[in-house]
Amino acid sequence: MPRFFIDTDDGDQFDRDEDGYELPDRDAARVEAIGALPDLARSQIPDGDRRTFRVRVRDADGKPVYEASLTLDGRWLEPEAEEG
Known about the structure:
Elements: E1 3-9, E2 14-15, E3 21-22, H1 26-42, E4 50-58, E5 64-73
Antiparallel strand pairs: 1-2, 1-3, 1-4, 4-5
């Protein structure tokens, strides 16, 4: 099976995958990469309301073959009430 590498970037830290995954094909690598995005976001959500998370798939030669991102854009809809 071919080897694919899935690099991640949470907006603060880029992690280059040095081990990779043996997967049947590019479509399987795409599914694996997309599946990593929610976990990546979940670990960083407490750090703020705006952030873009990215994954990039590289083939065995190191050539990028797929990229995806997930953007968190949260905001309050009304101001916080003053305590008094």
